Batch of 4 targets.
Target 1
Amino acid sequence: MAYHTEPAVLKEVILWKKNTLQEVKNEIKDTSTKIALLQLQDQDVSESNTQLQPLEPQELEFRRLKTELDAALDRAVNLANSITWHTSMLSHIQILPAELLSYIFFLTLDHTSFPEWTPSSFPPLIYARVCSSWHATVLSTPLLWSSVSIFIMPGRNWSVPLSLELIWHPKVGDPRIHATLRDLVVSSSFRWKRLQLFVPDDTLEIILAQPLPALEYLGLGSETSEFTKPIAPLARSDFVPSLQTVSFLNVRSSALAWDMPWSQLTEINSKGLRCATEILWLLHRCSSLKRCCLRLSRHNHIIQFLNQRLWFWLTTGVVFFQSSTLRRLLSALVMFWCYEMELRDTVKCIPSLKEKDTVPQGLKDLLLGRSHEDLR
């Protein structure tokens, strides 16, 4: 534990320094008086001496007194600053152990995986400007620097797991892209815990070309299609052994373009509209799925449903956007432990339309029949 001076000792030190400061102020007053008298004497002698010859003893005395005055003034300033600093340490927050203070700083951070901070609004930088004690605590707390832009002091986070968001659209064909990426992010890839990428496809191959042992969340904002060349290493479970959640953040990003360890994923999210065939393709491969958020397209002219029913251990909820094909899709699913399902219709997002229950009773009965638990 970090050592902090007891309040009683601080008060004793402050009292001693205040008394010393008063003594120094008295010295300054006496020395200033002596200098003023010496200047008056020198003026009288100068007026009576037509030759204006300097008097050496008075000149030496004046210089000595001036040196003493300057030194006393410096001591007074230092004592006043020291008293102010020690007085601030009597604040309750200043006598907290450094470990507890750093934990408080960590709790006050925004609870977002990828906060949009700038250097002027980055909390650790703001805390560090308050006082020397806070400055030292912030710099010695790597967790405060674990979810930052790669442009904000990446060395401060030491070796803790990182959450990084990379939004980069480099010039096409720029040969410096490989070296730049390696220098900025690839060297710390073994520490990535949450990764969100909005980069071109060729850049993805560079970023995801090394093992990611700590990666738990992967957000992909690149435009991909089923014709995009998959990132092969992600398919190996030993390449991303901790990966649990994948989010497709681009409306034109297709999950079919990715070769991933689908069976180990517990959550999958997709921002773009998916056809029923693609949703079934995903659910069929994600056997460990516990939560998903998928948008079902209303236009499914050709739907090839699987003949067999799919069993899932979904627990925390499934979110679909309702369409005319939703009943047929749910008919192929058996969600044994599902206790919560949310069905949304796009018309309910329009404020001018009257709020209404868009889930027919027959569909509710179908859902209840698919779950052996209480379904909300």
Target 2
Amino acid sequence: MQRFGNTEPAEIRFSPSISSRNDGLFYSFFLLLPETFFFSLSSFLTSVLLPFYCFFLHFLIVFLIHSSLSSFLDLNHKSNLQIDLFFFDCSSLLLVHLFFFIFFFLSSSSQFLHLAYRSKGYEPQDL
């Protein structure tokens, strides 16, 4: 029998830019985008829309309570005080929701990076 070419097993080589440890996170970031779409959507709804919905709902409730109290108790001479209390209540509520928005945004970002690291085979103790 006649042999053609090299019979040794072929060696598979990867380019250093793809297999390097530094570029791995970049590639896994784009590979995880479809996988974490629903996770990102749920964190967006939790961190952005839900606090603003609660804020406007609370804004409406406080407005209705203050307007009903002023009409029921006839406190028109103290309307400036009521408006000040109303805006103070809404501004403090806005700060609370802003805090929760920052907290949920940071937690969802850290979880996304954690997923990207784990997809490359890193464990939390490696970081």
Target 3
Amino acid sequence: PSSTGVKNVKSPEGKKGAPFVKVAASELYSSGMSRTETLTQALRRAIAVEITEETEIIHGEVVEVVVDKPLFEGASAAIGTSGRLTLKTTEMETVYELGGKMVEALSKEKVVSGDVIMIDKATGKVSKLGRSFTRSREFDAVGANARFVSCPEGELQTTRAVVHSVSLHEIDVINSQQHGFLALFSGDTGEIKREVREQIDVKVSEWVEEGKARVVPGVLFLDEVHMLDIECFSFLNRALDASGSLSPLVVMATNRGVTGIRGTPFRAPHGVPLDLLDRLLIIMTTAYTEQEMRQILDLRAVEEDVKIDDEAVALLAKIGSETSLRYAMYLLTTAALACAKRRAESVALEDVKRCYALFLDVKRSTQYLREFQSEYLFNEIDDDDEEDAENAPFNGANASGAPQTVDAAGSGDTGQPMAID
């Protein structure tokens, strides 16, 4: 294909929580970090670790919230405020004593009587789930964001398993003493030592054996893979052969045929060494038919909110089959602008023809250049004439070949030479 259009693929939906990382090969070349380190970070970003943690929560419907006055005047809410919270389920009702921080958290969420809330005992986080169905008739009108839920059943205090998903690269950055977790926000992670990664791999393996965590290999998409050099290919050979689940699915895309391997004088299919190609499953792509192009253009028109006639779509599909699908999509956009200029409701055949005459495709542009190449600036002066023009001030001859003399007035008519100090 003329371009790697598969770079817009999305994360696989079949595997929930699987990370998807897109990297272009041209992004790997940096003065601040080696290419193998950049590849390693991309590979470890494509591997997720799901850590299961059991936490105690309080889940119930608010019956009453009572906030006492501060103990002394001018005291902040976190110091001098206390209160009581009454929660209930379908089976029980309990009163909780509140401190200043919990009162502040409840007031921040604007919790009132009739709300169904959930409180994390470990962190003190308050989450408002909605209003109880029993309070649905208290108001004649409610907002669009109002959500009614049923009153919880069973015990107020329950244990719930919470799954935290984090990538191996994020664990590497957090455990790197040189940078710490703040590098996650700045993005300046730098190079991470191999010993740190080895210790993390051992710890993750222990968590997996104990049942505390689960490794989820994701997808690493390498676009423009022909831009990688021989060192990157050698590193990928070893990374793809990594045993266990600490290796993601690597998808490579390229639009090159038989071309040179970067960093070597050798040529190979797609610019990839043969020993690496032997480890890959190559997916063959075929050109779109005219009918398929028409369906794609119809979807594109719906996406851009453009009304187009059937004859115009058929012409665009024919143009796309003779030139390229991308050029046909560009013509669709420009034809919509031409249609808007003449204040029509839908793109007609004349709009497409007008844009096709105004904007050239690659084939017509190349043909035009070959036909009128003598009219362009770089063809007006030949190489021999250019060399003569450069040497003319130094060979002492004018255009006629006779010696040129300059008089005192600066003219060359008298034939008397002028002395120059």
Target 4
Amino acid sequence: MNARVGNNRAANIVGTNGEATLNSNDRKLIDFCTFNNLKIMNTFFKHKEIHKFTWEARGHKSIIDYFTTNMKTSKEEFFKVRLLNDESIRWLYTQRVKLHLNNTMENEIDLEKEWENLQNILKSAANESLGTIKRRNRRKYLKTWDDQIKQLIETKKKSYKKWLNSKKLKDKLEYKRNTALVKTEETACIQGNIDKNVFLQYYEKLWNTTNINESQLEYNSTNYLHASITSDELEKALILTKNGKTPRQDNINSELYKYVPEEFKLRLLQFFNNIYTGNHIPNEWRNAVITPIFKKDDRREPKNYRGISILNTCYKIYSKILNMKLQNYSEEFMTETQNGFRMGRSCTDPKFCLKLLTEKRREFNWETHFLFIDYEKAFDHTQRQILFNILKSRHIPDTLLKAIVDIYTQNTILIKFNNKLSKPAAINKGVCQGCPLSPTLFNAYIYTKL
């Protein structure tokens, strides 16, 4: 069209950062964009004058090449939880929670119905007091950034600036050569080489086993200590729950649970106790959305990704409470040499001791031998039935044990990759990476194995 659309804003199609000149074809391009729901992106971003123009000849410059994009980009709505830092907004939110709490049936016996009620209370209160924000699903292709890529991109930028200023052929060829080098290096980093269904098949095979011991655990009816969850445990779990974490499909962040009034906490406590004593979690909690995170080596191999479970926020609060109960017993049979996955401990001291020991023995020219064992896919290869038997042998109270067994019953996964969800698949092996219970459960499992 050779159109020059100017810099006068036009119905969210033309921005104010284009060139000032118009020509007779401007209306044709604007009408075309209006009909096809497109926006001219060149005109929406501020750049230096030297970078704006796409054509230059005989001392004249103009923008006649345009980048247009569909305005119907994918968006998700999220609650503006940052507003809860404001005390007045927080007060408004708690009042809205109280209002919706009074409008729903109290202590619904049906757990699925009660779970739906609790979600609706928080969503309605958050929507009325905080509002929502639409977040675009931007696909970021380059996921790794190493020194080599960084150096190549810096070289490419320098050669581009040099060509812009000189307009010499040799500088243009140098810029194109550097661009080709960057693209070659980035090719290995482009997501999309693996389809979500390939990930699903991989994790379905990894987290399933045919060697299932069908023997049922025998529970002792008298071994029902600590058969309820206390308000102190709930309060501590809420404090330990981190802010800013990705929520599940319900979009209820941890902050929305932290700033609820006492009336809602009491109802949530009753809901947790009904689950704990009834040994049946809501069906939604049995589903985990798995996000593959690249670790190293070939990006086309699913085994080189770590599957992180995106779990429901309310489930994570509940599992934190179970984890606190379990730690009261696991600490009794853990040795002092076990430092991993234990509160108040880390691997810093053992590493320092190894370093100090090595230095001292070298000083006297003594041989020193260390054994390092790296368990491949350690969480993924945990056999659940063996784990439950270990917990039983460690005299974990039956109420707590049954609650843990219930969590790991009839689980399904969905793979989220490139902002797309796969179909669900059933699993029966491993503990979830991302679940507060998993480190303590794995500690008990591996301690017995060693």
